[in-house]
Design goal:
heterodimer, A: 193 residues, mainly alpha, disordered N terminus, B: 144 residues, 5 helices
Chain lengths: 193, 144
Amino acid sequence: MTEESAGIGKETLVAWKKGDQKAFEEIVRASMKKAYAMALGLVGNVEDARDLSQEAFMAAHRARGSFDPDRPFFPWFYRILRNRCLNFIRTRSKRGEISMDVLVEKECGRPRPDAVVMNREDSNALWKALFGLSEEHREIIVLRNFQGLSYRELSEALDISEGTVMSRLFYARKALYDALKDRFESGGNEKVG
Amino acid sequence: MSCDRMENDGMRYIDGEMTPAQAAEFEKHLAGCETCRRSIAELGRVDSMAGRMRIADPMDVFWEGYWKSMYKRGERRTAWILIVAGAAATALFGIFEIGRNFGPVTFVKVAAAVLAAGLALLFISVVRERVHQKKTDRYRDIIR
């Protein structure tokens, strides 16, 4: 999360805190992709993720008085976004359905056509399995594996100790393995490991 | 069967959060602990699968509309706050004025009050339904 915030200068954060609309736009543009991806990892639906991440930016703008410009923006913002997403999941499962074909491989390169099909099957299976987990477990997998947060960053974002980060990761991965066990045992996703 | 070392050391090992000395020590433990070896193989497989993936970026057109629609959302929120505050103030003033000049209760006055309450309820219900529809309509951004 720190590298994203590194793109937002302190002057911008100070100007935003004073109510500068241009500074706010700069912050949104620098953080929107990450915010959207994190919201999508929690709620699973593209439209909901866009709405919730936009609402979170507006909420952050209203709450900017409590922001300390000496600290990075994103961890502070993530708490607002996370609360919005978790409240949404708990109180309003209005759309409910999970968007598919959301995950792609990190590697660049051009895979063979048969590999593309297998990867899409894998990624959709993984995505579906993630939404069978609890929000807590899904969130930590999304942040660690898709967003690449370190243990320290996870601890800060989730407001838990590093010991709890490890414990939560262990149970989340165990639950995810159980959900994908049949796929692993039937020989799917052979490239893994 | 489980081993106490999996939760902490196992995760740090999989995630590369151990020093080389710590990793070497844990590998010694793995050599003698069948439970940990199996767990590392299983959970490492999950980690490897998830670690290869990332959430895809939507197309540029999505991001072009992101800031604009967010700005509109802010404007509409402010507009709604002003409308609701204005309507509440007007209603309160109206109720106060009606109460002050109400005079004796008659059948016509009661009927008019019931009618006004019904119309107000209907208005609120329609507005609420429209707002809900607008929020849940996945084609709302398509210009018809």
